Amino acid sequence: MNHKFLLSLIIGLASFNFYATAQKKPNVIIIYADDLGYGDLSCYGATKIKTPNIDALAKQGLRFTNGHATASTCTPSRYSLMTGRYAWRKKGTGILPGDAALIIPTDNSSLPSIFQQAGYKTGLVGKWHLGLGNAVEKDWNKEVKPGPKEVGFDYSFIFPATADRVPTVFMENQLVVGLDPNDPITVDYKNQIGTDPTGKDHPELLKMPAEANHGHNQTIVNGIGRIGYMQGGKLARWTDEEIPFTFLTKAKNFIEDHKQEPFFLYYALTEPHVPRLSTTMFKGKSELGNRGDVILQLDWAVGEITKQLKYLGLDKNTIIIFSSDNGPVIMDGYEDQGFEKLNGHTPAGSLRGGKYSILEGGTREPFIISWPAKIKPGVSGALVSQIDFLASFASFFNLESRNAIDSKNVWDAFTGKDQKGRDFFIEQSNQLAIVKDNWKYIRPSKGEAFYKLTHTDSGNLPAAQLYNLTDDLGEKNNLALKYPEKVKELENLLSTEEAK
Ligand code: NG6
Ligand code: CA
To answer: Atom 10, ligand 1: which residue's CA is nearest?
Structure first.
């Protein structure tokens, strides 16, 4: 045989083999919604809204009925997702202003760093809300660091905080996109700066008024009053209605760019957080007002991602995880007639409470894991949390993690082999609750029982609360007086965990 031919055959086989081995590692995409409720999707029982793309994901994967964010607001939940630690262990991990410093330590394991160690390319597209830089005072006109890169993302395309907070700009690899050096950006959360009109002084300029007493009346960008003041960066400022296309395009580009190697993509969408301004395509489509429209938009984005994976032939060996950072809220800053247009839709399903509350509506989320190559479709009642991705993927890759002390390896539950999941789980609002064997204990609290501003059933009561979630998922029947021993046992467990 011709030597040259033999050589190229060997090289060919070897590289084919290498390619095949490399391809064995599944790609992983976490699609993370913002303020989506347990009852907001048709695959979780919603009847007034149809979410066919997420439903399809649930149908081909595992749909969890007891899957949790760690907290009922954004920053602490995302902190736990990234670090594998409960946010209440660290001060300053509540809802962050848009100019906050990075709150994630860069010397511990993080979820993306585990993927990096396993040889993945890691990307983040979407909402960050975990702070940037070392201090509140920072120069937005050059690379702001530390940030996603230092946490473990090789690539990032983000907005820094929330859709209702300044700076209203996109940042690619920690640089403001489209910044004109002659129009530098300054951000201030204490003092009014610059000459831009504010929602407070110029309500006539607003296309969606702020609700009374909700704030959201500082610098106006794109006809929306924001939280915080911003000056400059006129050309870089976003138009809310283009956010979904922008994030989707960047997410698809990341997938395309890394189709030959294993990748991890954290795709953190802004829907259905306020301000809810859908693209033209979805205006009025849900017949449930703006909140419904942006949920359809979220569902569309999920469909576009799954379509692209199929097109690239990556659909079978890509794990798609879908969840949300906290429960639903209808009224959260702007007058978008959320209540008037609900039409009987129940964003938290049969759960009590929602965003900001310690009740199940606060942290129990839509939670779907799809991996056509390995996971059998079904429904799982295992107790699992987003905090567990870090330890579970670390164990899957045979890696050790550092300091992710609250992350549990529940790989078998995530892949459908175990129906139990965690032993216990701690939920956070502005206070704590603990769940074990489907008993839920909520600590006594001095907080208001009902947040008037957001119409939230907070779950705060001055007395201890104990619920048996097996037959009382709606947390209606407080059994604390009936089972004082159970209360004691759970309070002890909670205190022991707190002391760690
Ligand atoms: C609250 C805002 C709310 C929203 C939330 C953050 C007020 C009165 N309310 O403080 O509009 O921005 O923070 O939401 O300012 S989260 O999903 O990022 O946690
Ligand atoms: Ca949120």
So the answer is: 95
Tokens 């660290």 label which residue? 90
Q: CA 466 to CA 437: how far, in whole Å?
A: 12
- For 323-332, letters b (16+ CB in 10 Å) and e give bbbbbbbbbb
- Mean pLDDT in the chain? 96
DSSP structural state of residue 42: G
Selection from 410, 400, 390 nearest residue 152 by Cα: 390
Buried b (16+ CB within 10 A) or exposed e, 72-101: bbbbbbbbbbbbbbbbbeeeebbebbbbbb
The neighbouring-strand residues paired with 105 are none
Cross-strand bridge partners of residue 420: none
269 has a pLDDT exceeding 90: yes
Q: Dig out the tokens for 271 from the structure.
A: 């829907």
Tokens for 396, please give them. 């899957």
Q: What is the residue whose two structure tokens read 């550092």?
A: 402
Q: How much is the pLDDT for 19?
A: 45
Question: Per-residue pLDDT tens for 408-461?
Answer: 999 999 999 999 999 999 999 999 999 999 999 999 999 999 999 999 999 999
pLDDT tens digits, one per residue of 197-226? 999 999 999 999 999 999 999 999 999 999
What ligand 1 atom has the least distance to the C-alpha of 34?
Answer: 17
Peptide linkage before 160 cis (omega within 30 of 0) = no
Measured in degrees and rounded to the nearest 5, phi and psi for residue 389 equal: -60, -40
Instruction: Determine the atom of ligand 1 nearest the C-alpha atom of 273.
Output: 17
The structure tokens listed for 343 are 């039409």
User: Where does 312-409 have alpha helices with state H?
Assistant: 360-363, 389-396
The Å distance, Cα 163 to ligand 1 centre, comes to 10
Residues 6+ apart with CB under 8 A from 176: 140, 141, 167, 169, 170, 185, 233, 236
The amino acid that residue 429 corresponds to is S
Atom of ligand 1 nearest to the CA of 95: 19
Q: Ligand 1: which of 332, 357, 365, 429 to mutate, most ligand atoms within 8 Å of CB? A: 332
| Ligand 1 atom 16 nearest Cα | 74
Expressed in angstroms, the distance from the first to the final Cα of the chain is 68
- The whole-angstrom separation of Cα 369 and Cα 371 is 7
pTM beyond 0.90, yes or no:
yes
